[in-house]
From TrEMBL:
<protein>
    <submittedName>
        <fullName>Killer toxin</fullName>
    </submittedName>
</protein>
<feature type="domain" description="Killer toxin Kp4">
    <location>
        <begin position="25"/>
        <end position="135"/>
    </location>
</feature>
<keyword id="KW-0732">Signal</keyword>
<feature type="signal peptide">
    <location>
        <begin position="1"/>
        <end position="20"/>
    </location>
</feature>
<dbReference type="Pfam" id="PF09044">
    <property type="entry name" value="Kp4"/>
</dbReference>
<dbReference type="InterPro" id="IPR011329">
    <property type="entry name" value="Killer_tox_Kp4/SMK"/>
</dbReference>
<dbReference type="InterPro" id="IPR015131">
    <property type="entry name" value="Killer_tox_Kp4"/>
</dbReference>
<dbReference type="GO" id="GO:0005576">
    <property type="term" value="C:extracellular region"/>
</dbReference>
Amino acid sequence: MMMIRTLVLAVAILTSAVLANVTDIIPPVPDLGINCRGSSYCSSACTIANTAAVLVTNINAVSNGQWFNNGDHITCYGNICAFLQNTLEGGAYGSTIKGYAHYIPEHGCTCCGSVPTGFPNDNNVADGQLTFNFVG
C-alpha cells in the first residue's frame, strides 16, 4: 500500500511539473482577428479562383454614402456574400466598408473570411467585422 502511495505521489509531482512547463511554452489563444474562416460550403460555393477579390471590386462600386446594417448583403457573388456583423454602430457606410474590405484577399483569403471593423488597429472580430461567407 505504501508503495502505491509513493508511486501516485511521484506521478502527481511529475504531472504538475510537466503541466507547468507546457503552460510556459504555449501562449494563450489570441482573439480570432482577421481570418479566412467561413462555412464548410465556402470551398464548393466559390465558382472562381478569387471570389474574395470579386467581392472587393463590387464593394468598391457601392455608394460611399450608402448605409449597410449588420446582416445586410452588401454584395454577393453566387452564394458568397459580404455583410457586417456585430458592429457597435449597427452597421457602416459604404466608404467605411471600402476601407477594410481589401484586407480579406490581402490576407490570402480567396473565398471566405472576416476582417475586424477596427483593423489594422484593432484585430478583434468581437468588436465588429466585415465577413465574406456562404449564404444559403
